[in-house]
Design brief:
Largest sheet: 6 strands, antiparallel
Radius of gyration: 27 Å
Number of strands: 6
Helix content: 10-25%
Strand content: 35-45%
Oligomer: single chain
Order of helices and strands: EHEEEEEH
Structural class: mainly beta
């Protein structure tokens, strides 16, 4: 089965705590002059393991309260998405088969 990921903004510490272990989250911060710093974190059993462009953070593991404002990539099942997309097209009638008479050429002489 295929797993799809949906970006979800983390709005509270409780939401961050409820995410499954292994969840990946991202954050980008504007540090001035049009330059942004990018961070990533993975949820572990004892908190969030953070990294930035220079490597693992000295603040790891971070508490869930520090994850507010980050964007988590939450897994969703592909079957659910396929079912949702089929709901929108179920109102269409099934296609009507078209019967077209075809005369095949004679194998001996080639005439139709």
């Amino acid at each position: 089965m295929t797993t799809l990921y949906k970006p979800v903004l983390i709005e509270s510490a409780e939401q961050a705590e409820a995410l499954p272990i292994g969840t990946v989250a991202t954050l980008s911060e504007d540090i001035g002059d049009g330059v942004a710093d990018f961070y990533a974190a993975t949820k572990a059993e004892d908190g969030w393991e953070r990294t930035d462009s220079s490597g693992p953070s000295w603040m790891s593991p971070a508490p869930a309260t520090g994850m507010v404002g980050w964007t988590a990539l939450v897994p969703i099942e592909a079957e659910e998405e396929r079912a949702r997309s089929q709901i929108n097209i179920t109102h269409l009638p099934p296609p009507v088969p078209q019967m077209v008479p075809v005369r095949l050429p004679c194998l001996r002489c080639g005439l139709r």
